[in-house]
Amino acid sequence: MTLIPFDDRDGFIWMDGKIIPWRDAKVHVLTHGLHYGSCVFEGERAYEGKVFKLREHSQRLIKSGKLLGFKIPYSLEEIEKATLDIIEKQKIHNGYIRPVAWRGSEMMAVSAQKTTIHLAIATWEWPSYFGKEAKERGLKLQISKWARPAPNMAPTASKAAGLYMICTLSKHAAEDAGFDDALMLDYRGFIAEATGANMFFVMNGELHTPTPDCFLDGITRRTVMELARKRGLKVVERHIQLEELAKASEAFLAGTAAEVTPIGVIGEHTFAVGPVTKQLMEDYSARILQPS
Length: 292
Description:
Helix content is 26%, strand content 29%. The chain contains 7 helices and 16 strands. The strands form 2 sheets. Strands 8, 9, 10, 11, 12, 13, 14, 15 and 16 form a 9-stranded mixed sheet that branches.
């Protein structure tokens, strides 16, 4: 497959209050967000031209900025309008939306109180993250050597760019070893998440998911829990030990990009693409076409 670099495309991007040509959306090499990780973002999806959970994503973007010590200079309503404007301009029907906010280039040091806060929103057509085959057979996950940090070590409740460095390292290592993704433990050794999605396990007819006390409580995660409860499933949020995977009959990922994707293998453990996972995949596919 030939990759088309994201800086070598045509179209438009919303940036700092206006829609500009895609190729003109640039930042300087000495931008604080690049050097010191002062950058937050969101991942959103449009289905049939409508953004799923736009309000929750926009709220989380603003919150993430606050957790990194800066205020995005646009209101919630302005961010939502900009998102809808760029989707219309780009003629996106089913695609991905990436809002990103960062500190500018006025100061090049750890201290950056006087930097300008920038905001850009890009969108493009994008198919399923893992593909049809992976959803049918279930993903293969390697167990990563990298752990999610403690809340007193990083702003773990934010969707901050810097927190994804270990995700990239984990996913690259997994792909190099023939896996699709990686399972990441937290700083205590409990199961946390995959590199870009939350995790669920079916155990004794119940749906178990790790407590998100040092990683994102995903918007898709909460949607799946709501759908499961509507089906009469008991949903249990708790700390899950790695050895408990032997008790799980099914496992799946949940995230904006991953949507609901079954897991077939984690390390030496195997799982069926079973009835609970299949039902929640169907329920989620139906839910995303309803009003948020």
